[in-house]
Predict the structure.
Amino acid sequence: MQHHPKGEADPYLTARYRHQREADYANFSRGRMLNNVITESLDDFVHLPHDAEQRLRKRLQLSSSTRARIAFLAGPGDAAGTFCYWQNGKTDPRTPVVAYSTMFYTLIKKLDAEAMLICERPTLPANSARFKFAAVPRYRPAGRFSYRWAQYIYAERVVRLLKVYQPHILLTGIDTPLFLMNSAPANCQIILTAHNGLHTMARADKGLPAQLRRWANYRRLKRVTGAVCTSREVERQILRVLPTLSGRTFVEVPQVEKHLIKPRHASSTIETIVYLGRFEEDKGLSDLLRAFEIVASSQPKPQLFFAGSGAFEEQLKQMVAASPFSRRIHILGLLDADSVHNLLNQADLLVCPTRNAFPEGLALVVVEAAAHGVASIASSAVPASELVGEGCLVYPADNVDALAASMAHLISNPKAVAEMQESLVRNRDIYLNRSLSWGTQLGRLLTIEMG
């Protein structure tokens, strides 16, 4: 989905996409009902043109007897575990939105292609005729030299696998090491699945430092032939570095399983405030805690819930224990998908306080909350507000007082909260529209003609 100048209509609603969107959503909405429960096939999450397989073969100049081979650097998630669920016709119950790897397996099957998944976790399923798995750990130690050496070792091991497998396409993340990008087989097309930004939103885009960053990113990404981006901000950053990709970048919309969206009685009174996500310092948990303490000193009802896990967990527990409002602050730990959606179904407000230091690509939690009609407050380091629109209140990142003021404003202004909720409900269908999914957008990218 292309970047549109300010003032133009939302690209999700432009004439270019409206017809496809309405047709796909009508097909999806027919659904299947079993004991009043909506059931969806895994095939529903990836929409392709009827001749997609032929288009891919034509793009790669393959004979009808040769399957396309796609290598996927699956990242730190448990793609292998997701495969075991997928084999049994199920989505991964550990993820609140439909997992990228679930859609990848479905896409490969629909394209009659083959794939090798290179996973960072050591536990792998057995190989099949269509899917092969390899484990390459990727360590991220502290220290500049140690980190770069670890990335080189990771890249060298991956390159060895790629030279044996000889993929036609390599699907990889935006943080892929330079050596891997340059050393992948020469006839292999490289496609980005870009979940994070190239830099934080707070960094200036002008001046010598910005030019040096663009040059370094260009050196690393110059072989990229297309990208599926997690937000328009990520797409903008990529196109600044590689303007020649114009027309070959797409923006996906995270998808929520329809049965997880349950009827709720929306309340414009804010009593349950929720943080969901990784417990990392740059995610701004301490900022949220301090802002809540400011608000709680004059508002007796709101309570704060932290759900997730990570390196900052022990420090967070200590800070909560020392807080004068500790009885109103709760750490729930890591939740599975059902528990996340149940929590959001009870929430009145979600806060995403990411700091400027973190290159946030989207912040899925804002989307998950939006699908439930839950208003959110997000820092200016989070590009999710572009997707959820008026349902998200944005404050300057790293500013605790501004965060506290935003929370206090919504707590004391039920009318504003009700308007945010109404906006989210009006826009909800995009999180249930499989024609906008990551798998569908990747399928479109794989089947467009290369100029």
